Amino acid sequence: MAPLRSARRRPGHPAHRVAVLLITFLAGLGVLPGVALAAPGSQLNAADMTLLNGVRLAGLWEMPAGQMAAEKGQSARVRQIGAEISRQHGVLDQLVVDAANKLGAALPTDPTTEQKGWLTEMQNATGARFDQIFVTRLRVAHGKIFPVIGAVRASTRDATIRKLADEANTFVSDHMAMLESTGLVRWQQLPPAALPPAQSDSLLAAAAANTGNSVGVSTTVVWLVFLVALGTGGIATYRILRRS
């Protein structure tokens, strides 16, 4: 993530709330540790890099996950969806690589430790258990990146990022619909949506961090929010899989 300039803000200041919301998005995607940074001279900011890293990381683990589903899914629908999601992520991955090359930004080359754990979990599962894990993991992951795409698209200043957001939005929407068509999504147990504070006028508040005005947030706050969000998502997913 691009470094944030130090600035004092009142805890209740709108910009402070927006910064915390963006950090929560980052935590849900698992891209806070070791994120790629744009090359020197680039006009990209933290929100733009969030989209680039998030889309890239999604492809790095969902392509092999989809291939696994195509080979070992119990139901024909899961096998079909797995193959198609893997194929489409191959296309989307090339789009994000092309965008990063154009912008001079470095991208991750490996899934996160958490994502590798999900792949190991799928490798160790069989039958109906595998189908449930596959659908649950991918549906939760797509649900996390979906609002990030909209927030970045709403106010990014970069035309290449806007184009990538439009493309990613189409793919993610299609993938969620495909996963939902299996009938295995447990709606009541999905993690709650991350929304701006009630006093915010609209969801566009979530994209205000993309205006280029850096907000001072301490490292302690960043990691505290990261751990809380990670724990919340993990607990929700554990409950879903435990009941399968």
Task: Tell me what the structure shows.
The protein has helices at residues 14-29, 46-72, 76-103, 113-123, 127-155, 159-180, 219-242. 40% of the residues are buried. The protein is an all-alpha fold. It has a single domain, classed as Ferritin. The chain has 7 helices and no strands.
Low-confidence stretches: 1-11, 14-41, 201-227
Count all strands and give the number. 0
Helix content: 55-70%
Q: Architecture in CATH?
A: Up-down Bundle
Morphology: globular
CATH topology: Ferritin
Structural class: mainly alpha
What is the CATH level 1 assignment?
Mainly Alpha
Q: Averaged pLDDT, please?
A: 77
Task: Please describe the biggest sheet, giving its number of strands, its sense, and whether it closes into a barrel.
Answer: none
Give the tally of structural domains. 1
How many helices? The count is: 7
**Distance N terminus to C terminus?**
37 Å
Output the radius of gyration.
Answer: 18 Å
What is the ordering of alpha helices and beta strands? HHHHHHH
Classify the beta-strand content into a percent band. Answer: under 5%
